Amino acid sequence: MVAKTFKFDDDLEVNRLGYGTMQLPGKGVWGPNANPKAAVDVMDAVLNSDVNFIDTADAYGPLFANDYVRQALQDYEGAHKMIATKVGFTRQGPDVWTPLGNPDYLRQQVEINLFSLGLESLDLIQLHRIDPHYPLADQVGVLADMKKEGKVKHIGLSQVTIDDIEAAQKITPIASVQNRYNLTDRHDEGVLNYADQHHIAFIPWYPLATGHLATATGPLADIAKAHRATPAQIALAWLLHRSDVILPIPGTSNVNHFFSNTAASRITLSAEEMTQLTNLGDAE
Ligand SMILES: NC(=O)c1ccc[n+]([C@@H]2O[C@H](COP(=O)([O-])OP(=O)(O)OC[C@H]3O[C@@H](n4cnc5c(N)ncnc54)[C@H](OP(=O)(O)O)[C@@H]3O)[C@@H](O)[C@H]2O)c1
């Protein structure tokens, strides 16, 4: 039986299929969307759907994705949506990402995320990358301090090893891990298994392999056809079946793709289909 929700704590339980905002800014995750109203419309659709787990970062744009989230949140009056954001990356241009783990800057970034999202506290702050130039204890430590100050509820990591998680857990509880993982990229199977054993949310980025899985042929397309579904929906359904701690966050700038992706949570895969799909991957 596939779990529909994941519980971060007694007050914070989310539907497992979420949404990632990285496709909302301009090309190279830089600057505004060519049609900013369309980006806010996507966010409106997200907020008015069952999706209540949204992943963003001030680095997306920078700031444009957060601003689209804030604009949509302004008019939204429904149930609480969990906004997960990230700190630890600076941007110098399209597709250019430079980690910066100076704890003073991380503190400023938490404030920038709060302001740009229009929130008083952040449900989940994730360290986007560990910066080797600063001690881990300082990078995670400043986020732990801000948790004590009430600005952050949960702390997560991104693109880390099991050793990194265990080192960070010595400083503060780690609620989530966001690593690259999808049907055909399973390098981090070990980290996923660790997260599963410790009830840590595992948030796979590139859940659609940046869209490649949406246009797949072969067995993935065959299984999709049998379910009258799309390959993207089957790739997401596989993630949802793979482990109950997985929270996929497919990114899209297209409202129709968003609705199509969310329908993946209604697909039930048989054990045989799971085996067939799992065999497509490159697990180590
Ligand atoms: N922690 C990290 O280091 C990290 C790194 C990268 C991403 N992320 C997070 O992970 C999220 C997901 O990653 P992602 O957005 O880069 O990649 P993704 O979800 O694997 O794929 C997004 C791509 O797939 C296309 N797509 C989405 N749904 C589709 C559908 N139903 N049919 C056809 N094409 C579809 C999108 O184009 P359209 O816009 O045309 O739909 C876009 O080009 C991001 O939004 C971000 O929140 C985190």
From TrEMBL:
Residues 16-280 form the NADP-dependent oxidoreductase domain. This is Oxidoreductase. InterPro entries: AKR, Aldo-Keto_reductase, NAD(P)_OxRdtase_dom_sf, NADP_OxRdtase_dom. Keywords: Oxidoreductase. SUPFAM superfamilies: NAD(P)-linked oxidoreductase (SSF51430). The keyword Disulfide bond does not apply. Gene3D superfamilies: NADP-dependent oxidoreductase domain. PANTHER family: AFLATOXIN B1 ALDEHYDE REDUCTASE, ALDO-KETO REDUCTASE YAKC [NADP(+)]. GO terms for cellular component: cytoplasm. It holds the Pfam family Aldo_ket_red. The keyword Ion transport does not apply. GO terms for molecular function: oxidoreductase activity.
